[in-house]
UniProtKB/TrEMBL annotation:
InterPro entries associated with the record: Metal_resp_DNA-bind_regulator, Tscrpt_reg_PadR_N, WH-like_DNA-bd_sf, WH_DNA-bd_sf
Membrane-spanning intervals of the chain: none
Protein's recorded name: Transcriptional regulator PadR-like family protein
Domain Transcription regulator PadR N-terminal positions: 15-87
Length: 114
């Protein structure tokens, strides 16, 4: 299982990635995160709620009241246009970061490639 510390900076990226496919409520987001991660990572509800509230206060996500399929009141979260732009920038940053870290992990000598 991946530790919360190792993935902390990427929770917003995971949430925005899910919301680019449509609106969702917090419990559903948590279930989808566990499912997609293959149960290698399970997000705590407090972490999830803090993240969606932070994303909402930053204007990257909006919320609207709604009902679940069973009729229970839910708050649905939807990514804004600013959220999509932010997601695209963060995905590009992630790919660049991963490429740099992979160079260190995959290096046999610790020297820069020639």
């Amino acid at each position: 299982m991946i530790s919360a510390d190792a993935i902390r900076g990427y929770v917003d990226l995971m949430i925005l990635s899910l919301l680019r496919h449509g609106s969702s409520y917090a419990y559903e987001l948590a279930q989808r995160i566990s499912s997609i991660s293959g149960d290698d990572y399970s997000i705590k509800q407090t972490t999830l709620y803090s993240a969606v509230k932070r994303l909402e206060s930053s204007g990257l996500v909006s919320s609207t009241p709604g009902l679940s399929p069973s009729g229970k009141a839910r708050t649905y979260y939807l990514m804004t246009d600013d959220g999509l732009a932010h997601l695209n920038a963060k995905v590009a940053e992630w790919r660049e970061t991963k490429a740099v870290v992979d160079r260190f992990i995959d290096s046999d000598t610790g020297d820069a490639p020639s």
